[in-house]
UniProtKB/TrEMBL annotation:
Enzyme class, UniProt record, top EC level: transferase
Pfam families: GHMP_kinases_C (PF08544), GHMP_kinases_N (PF00288)
Keywords, ordered alphabetically: ATP-binding, Isoprene biosynthesis, Kinase, Nucleotide-binding, Transferase
Cross-referenced InterPro entries: GHMP_kinase_C_dom, GHMP_kinase_C_sf, GHMP_kinase_N_dom, IspE, Ribosomal_Su5_D2-typ_SF, Ribsml_uS5_D2-typ_fold_subgr
Residues the entry annotates as binding ATP: 94-104
Family named by the database record: Belongs to the GHMP kinase family. IspE subfamily.
Presence of keyword Nucleotide-binding: yes
Reaction catalyzed: 4-CDP-2-C-methyl-D-erythritol + ATP = 4-CDP-2-C-methyl-D-erythritol 2-phosphate + ADP + H(+)
Origin superkingdom: Bacteria
Active site per database record: 10, 136
EC number(s) given by UniProt: 2.7.1.148
The protein's annotated pathway: Isoprenoid biosynthesis; isopentenyl diphosphate biosynthesis via DXP pathway; isopentenyl diphosphate from 1-deoxy-D-xylulose 5-phosphate: step 3/6
Name under which the protein is recorded: 4-diphosphocytidyl-2-C-methyl-D-erythritol kinase
Taxonomic path: Bacteria, Bacillati, Bacillota, Bacilli, Bacillales
């Protein structure tokens, strides 16, 4: 038997860090939403008790370091599943980009294996399993748009932002999420973006207010480490995006664009700076 799952990328419309916790994680407040750029997973049942990962992408681990492998092992162990699975990952989300590609693959694996092995695990429990794999995984289990608190695993679903185009550009640099959080000084943040204001803008369907409310306190850290991310932001703004922000810990920069007529100009302009550029729709 085979199952198919789509694993969409996420962007953070706002991300605030409140304080560092005793367990080393940071207490955050984020509003996250999915975009129409997705990996595709094919999950095939194996009679023998093993987990095999394959992918057309040559640059991701295919062993137990892969988050989809970890998700399969977790669900197998926890529910005493004897059969195995072959997971083929058709990677389309850029890797180590701040778009939760690996987390979304893990979440899609949890959803897909729940169906493949007919385990009947409720969504809430799948999210709890996801939290064992990473802070972004619980959100990716259910997707949509949500306010995320705690270390990112406590979720309140909210309305979808107004439909728009999302132009994504990933510069060719590597950013470590742990390093970026490690450099945040939570009591020294000049301007905290407001989750409440963003939520109100979304609920009012006010695109201009959504753009005005974009904010990510991790930008300060990543932009200092990698000035090219700042240059990319400036280029996207000059090219006419309505709102521009770095996603997660970066380095991907996204621009929200309401008019389709502007998208080609922004996309083509950015291709001069950056090889990895995508123009996709927001997901409602
Ligand atoms: C930057 C975001 O992607 C925004 O959505 C997330 O906050 C990070 O999510 P993630 O990549 O799933 O993060 P995890 O794999 O759980 O953690 C990676 C590392 O980031 C740091 N980390 C992560 C989340 C958090 N709330 N506080 C942290 O300090 C920790 O050092 C941790 O060891
Ligand atoms: N299924 C996977 N897809 C992509 N990368 C994976 C996967 N499993 C493990 N990895 C590893 O995880 C690292 C981070 O990749 P990923 O694409 O998940 O980052 P990200 O988009 O920055 O995630 P986040 O936004 O959750 O911090 C990569 O260095 C990669 O080697």
């Amino acid at each position: 038997m085979k199952m198919y799952e789509k694993a969409p990328a996420k962007i953070n419309l706002m991300l605030d860090v409140l304080h560092k916790r005793a367990d080393g994680f940071h207490e955050v407040e984020m509003i996250m939403t999915m975009v129409d750029l997705a990996d595709r997973l094919e999950l095939s049942e194996l009679k023998r008790d093993s987990i095999i990962i394959s992918s057309q992408a040559g640059y991701i681990p295919l062993d137990e370091k892969n988050l989809a492998f970890q998700a399969a092992r977790l669900i197998k162990d926890r529910y005493n599943v004897r059969s195995g699975v072959h997971i083929h990952l058709d990677k389309r989300i850029p890797v180590a980009a701040g778009l939760a590609g690996g987390s979304s693959d893990a979440a899609a694996t949890l959803r897909g294996l729940n169906r493949l092995w007919r385990l009947g695990i409720p969504a809430q429990e799948l999210q709890e399993l996801g939290a064992e794999l990473g802070s972004d995984v619980p959100f990716c289990v259910t997707g949509g748009t949500a306010l995320a608190t705690g270390r990112g695993e406590r979720l309140t679903p909210i309305a979808s932002p107004p439909q728009c185009w999302v132009v994504l550009a990933k510069p060719p640099i590597n950013v470590s999420t742990a390093e970026v959080y490690g450099r945040v000084r939570a009591n020294n943040i000049a301007v905290h973006p407001s989750a409440l204001r963003m939520q109100q803008a979304i609920e009012a369907g006010d695109f201009a207010a959504v753009c005005a409310g974009l904010g990510n306190v991790l930008e300060d850290v990543t932009l200092k480490l990698h000035p090219e991310v700042q240059q990319l932001k400036e280029a996207m703004m000059k090219l006419g995006a309505d709102g521009v922000l770095m996603s997660g810990s970066g380095p991907t920069v996204f621009g929200l664009v309401s008019k389709q007529s502007k998208v080609a100009r922004i996309y083509n302009g950015l291709r001069g700076f950056c090889k990895e550029v995508y123009a996709v729709r927001s997901l409602s």
